[in-house]
Amino acid sequence: MDKNELSRAIGILQNRFSELDWTYHDAPLKDGVDKMYKWPGDPSEEVIICVHKSSGMQELFHRHDFFFFNYTYRGQYSSLSRRNDNTITICEHELYAGQPFAAHALHAHDNAETIIVGILIQKKTFFHSFLPLLTANFNLLHFLLDPALNSFSDECIHFKIDDSSAILPLIELMIAEYARRREDTQNILKPLVLSFLSMVARQYSHMNMTAHGCLGDRLIQYIAEHVDTVSLKELSRRFQYHPNYISNILSKEKGRTFSQIRLEQRMTKALVLLKNSTLAINEVALMLGYSNSSNFYREFKRYYGKSPREYMLRP
Questions:
Q1: What percent of the chain has pLDDT over 70?
Q2: Looking at the predicted structure, is the pLDDT value of residue 101 above 80?
Q3: Which of 79, 151, 291, 315 is such that its CA lies 20 to 30 A from the CA of 7?
Q4: Where are the alpha helices (DSSP H) in the chain?
Q5: pLDDT band at residue 153 under the 50/70/90 scheme
Q6: How far apart are CA 202 and CA 219, in angstroms?
Q7: Percent of residues, the chain, with pLDDT higher than 90
Q8: What is the pLDDT of residue 186?
Q9: Are strands 66-74 and 94-98 parallel, antiparallel or unpaired?
Q10: Taking a C-beta distance cutoff of 8 angstroms, is the pair 222, 235 a contact?
Q11: What Cα–Cα distance (Å) separates residue 214 from each residue in 17, 204, 217, 226?
């Protein structure tokens, strides 16, 4: 993209930043009340691209009711935990992302200009339009859907974007499109966001690869990432071992058969999805590779002792 065009688009979004509603709202918790940002733009918009330019800012500790992916276009800033005793520094060209209700406070340093590009996604849109694309990467799925509120390090994704990655060009396209909004801008943004999330998932998966672990660990990781389609025959082709050898490795190293491990991975994902998303039970079943919801119901009840619906209705 032409740099002058990109700079103009960034300037437009920077000027619009103050038009968004960054009011702090009370968010009642079991042990008190926190501050929260609610969706800051037009409720009809499913995705917002915003640009915050600052030479010094200190936010209150707060949460969000939406997904956010922040890209540091220029400068650097810090993210502080609740007790201000755990700090992450987010540098230029790094991505910092969080799920709804994750808590932090951002601090941009006073002596340097900082420009942050934010990609904000409404929860409903994420669950129904984007979530099905990400189920292969269980680490990322678990992060996005099951925040570990007592472990600050698990509340964010933080990594430097690879120079060879398509993530940055996608961000630039979203900036340019949103800066000059048209009636169909949301329709244009959604496939761009899908591609962006796919690339984030790819890099996140690469960062968490166990390529140097034992064969059993690599087999389990592959099963987890392809639980909707994986078969013993596919594992044989992928790792170039006879199916009987793979079965023996799993039994010897992990003490479980392929079918038991696949079921375990399916049920673990099912629990995360039922607990945290707004997906219907039949949608969860399809995402996990079940041809019909009856099979899913039967296996879920055998595994957990109650049906998916009973689980969802529990107090």
A1: 85
A2: no
A3: 79
A4: 3-16, 123-125, 131-134, 138-145, 167-179, 185-207, 215-225, 232-239, 243-249, 258-276, 281-287, 293-304, 308-313
A5: very low
A6: 18
A7: 46
A8: 97
A9: antiparallel
A10: yes
A11: 49, 20, 5, 19
- Three-state secondary-structure class, residue 242: coil
Distance CA 246, CA 258 (A): 8
Measure the CA–CA gap between 116 and 93, rounded to whole angstroms: 10
For β-strands 24-29 and 157-160, DSSP reports them as unpaired
Amino acid at 27: A
Number of H helices, E strands in the chain: 13, 12
For 35, residues 6+ apart whose C-beta sits below 8 A from its C-beta are 24, 25, 26, 27, 60, 61, 62, 63
113 vs 30, more confident:
113
Count the Cβ atoms, other than its own, within 10 Å of residue 85. Answer: 8
φ/ψ of 281, rounded to 5, equals -60, -40
Compute the residue count for the chain: 315
Tokens of 26: 């009370």
**Model confidence band, residue 147 (pLDDT cutoffs 50, 70, 90):** very low
Residue spans of alpha helices (H) in 135-280: 138-145, 167-179, 185-207, 215-225, 232-239, 243-249, 258-276
Q: What is the dihedral of CA 248, 254, 256, 257, to 10 degrees?
A: -40
pTM of whole model > 0.85?
A: no
CA dist 109 and 130 (Å) reads 34
- Antiparallel, parallel or unpaired: β 94-98 and 47-54: unpaired
